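TA notes. Do not distribute before section.
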Amino acid sequence: MQAQCSSQEQNQTKEDHMKGMAELLPILFLLFPLISSTTMASFDDYTSFVYVGCSQSKYILGSPYQFNVDSLLTSVANAATFSSYNNFTSSAASGSSPAYGLFQCRVDLPVADCASCVRSALDQLSSLCPSASGAGVQLKGCFLRYGNDSFLGEPDTTLLYKKCGSVVPGAGYNSDLLGMRDAALSGLSGGGGSYRVGAGGHVRALAQCVGDQSVKQCNDCVAAAVAQVKDGCGIANAGDAYLGKCYVSYWSDGVYTSRHYHGGVSGKTLAIIIGVTLGLVIMIIFLSFIRRTGK
């Protein structure tokens, strides 16, 4: 009789434990998306808006030029699903009013993310530059431009957008930061491909030229962009300069990763957030078992 009671108590304890786990499942399903969204929010900022430019002139709705523009933008959206850069000339509707255009994603952006970024850029164009004869939009991960002038292959060092970070108090720190910044930026001017990275201490920098530029055109554009952030941002801890055919960015928050940007959460902060969240999950499970065992 006593053995039977003991067996019943063990079964009851197991049932209590299983019930406790069943009650925890909804909590876990709520917490795991939190962890996932925290991770994605810190890295997936490639569709964040930077700037847009629209021509004052408008095309006539239903005109051959509009059909050329629509055809070009369709080609852009399709090409972004398998490449990070391409340019197009569309003249099927009328050879006398061709449309020129290109898109470019950051070289380190995966193809699927590149396509997503370009789609977002196209949405920005349609809402912010309706019927514009020419327009360009820059997101953090990609760039898109079209127009009725043959700008393909032409150099352009016009400053389109510049942004600087904050100045951290402390003469010694700022002096060190300035040296590290200059070292990181100097690594961008030494030639190489269209995508370049530089480093100096804990300062990182990157540059990218549009794919229609020659090596010399790219070097000239990067040098002009570097001069813009040096002159305009002083001892700020971050800076961006977007020119017509290239951009330069530097920041001082640690190691650069393929989706990292100085406006996001650093890897160290992200690890702390995930660690705390997982700790809460384990604590909830432990307390639930203690409570069930006590019963």
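Switch to the second chain here.
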Amino acid sequence: MSDISKSQEYMSFRSTIPQRKVVVDDDNTKEWTLYEAGPKTVKSPLVCFPPASGTADVYFRQILGLSALGYRVIAVEYPMYWTMKEFVEGFRKLMDHLGLDKVHIFGSSLGGFLAQKFAEYTARSPRVGSLILCNSFYDTSIFQQTNSAPTFWMMPAVVLKKMVMGSFQKSEMESNIADSIDFMVERLDSMSQQALASRLTLNCMNCYVEPQKLRDVDVTLMDVFDDCALSINVREEMCKCYPDAKRAHLKTGGNFPYLSRSMEVNVFLQIHLRKYDRGSLRARELTEEEMSILTDSDAGTDDS
């Protein structure tokens, strides 16, 4: 077991936050896995989409840290969807099942790509309040696997896992980044061949985001300055796609900063979501004191 898996923090998470399985498709084998914490009265929660190698519990530090501050956080794990249309329709059904009209999505790598595609899919009748994209991309061609993606379903699990692990850094690194990789390798090992193949198919099929359809979506781009699976060119292209996006830079963090730099990531998430405290898209329940301060502030603005 990795050090993170053995940590008191992770064991506390698993003992206090129940894992839920939800089926929203006609196919009963397509199960969404969810971990959720925070007040159910919040109708626009933060939903976390994991990378291709990750399960829903990779965001346990966001769930614990942010829910303690009043945020409603839902980390999801995708069923075996093989096309983008299946995925976006499946997530829309999940939102309907949970009674959610709009959500804020925090997605990492593949999770960030899927978040953009869902925002694009629902652009005419928006279901996305905002996006926080961590070490993500907008065009799958960067992986140079579009031709082989249709064959992933029949490749052995060991081959698929090697494809994913090839992007993990093997040089000397800080202990917390090494720990995050060990934890993610465990998550990767826990996946079935079909689950991993479906993730990699979505990750590498010929597909791209049309950023002009997301021009009205509030976006924060979160990335690291040290080594990660995405090149500097890919990160620069993301900035060109979203010229008005806010930037959240982490000096270090590797591929999985939500694990290795969770406190900094959580601060950036709070900064991003804070602007929604006053309206219907708020992601947290305000305390009486905070409500009073906002009310007084609004009254002062009206007086002026």
